[in-house]
Write a structure and sequence with these properties.
single chain, about 130 residues, globular, 7 helices, mainly alpha
């Protein structure tokens, strides 16, 4: 009986009690930590590598994930080999990317409010046109 009373007094944490995580889409500070000039270069280079080699050729998700890790490693090596002028260019590319960040969440919500049946590709293109 005493154990049951102690158990009843224990307050369980709900989702509302826990502090919210800082997501890139909601927090400029988190976005600035994530979207560095190096990360933007790596993402762009990985995208170029994926376009060069069809990712549909892989038999399963593990092979595609392994390839993605290889691409990230190769892009990171390429970043370290770049000169200061190229790195300054990517720092310049980072600024407008971060400038639109505070408006991304609201833009996504407005797109889905206007038409909840939109695909993610349609929302992405609408946001690019608006921002």
């Amino acid at each position: 009986m005493i154990v049951a009373m102690k158990a009843a007094k224990v307050k369980t944490k709900t989702v509302l009690d826990t502090p919210s995580r800082q997501y890139v889409i909601e927090c400029y500070k988190a976005a600035s930590r994530f979207f560095t000039d190096k990360e933007l270069f790596i993402q762009t280079r990985m995208h170029e590598m994926w376009k060069e080699e069809s990712h549909f050729a892989y038999e399963n998700a593990h092979a595609a994930r392994t390839t993605n890790n290889d691409y990230r490693r190769l892009a990171s090596i390429a970043w370290h080999a770049k000169d200061e002028e190229t790195k300054a260019y990517w720092e310049f590319q980072r600024r407008p990317h971060l400038a639109i960040q505070p408006h991304m969440r609201d833009g996504i919500i407005e797109c889905f409010k206007a038409n909840p049946n939109k695909s993610y590709q349609q929302v992405e293109s609408d946001i690019k046109l608006v921002l």
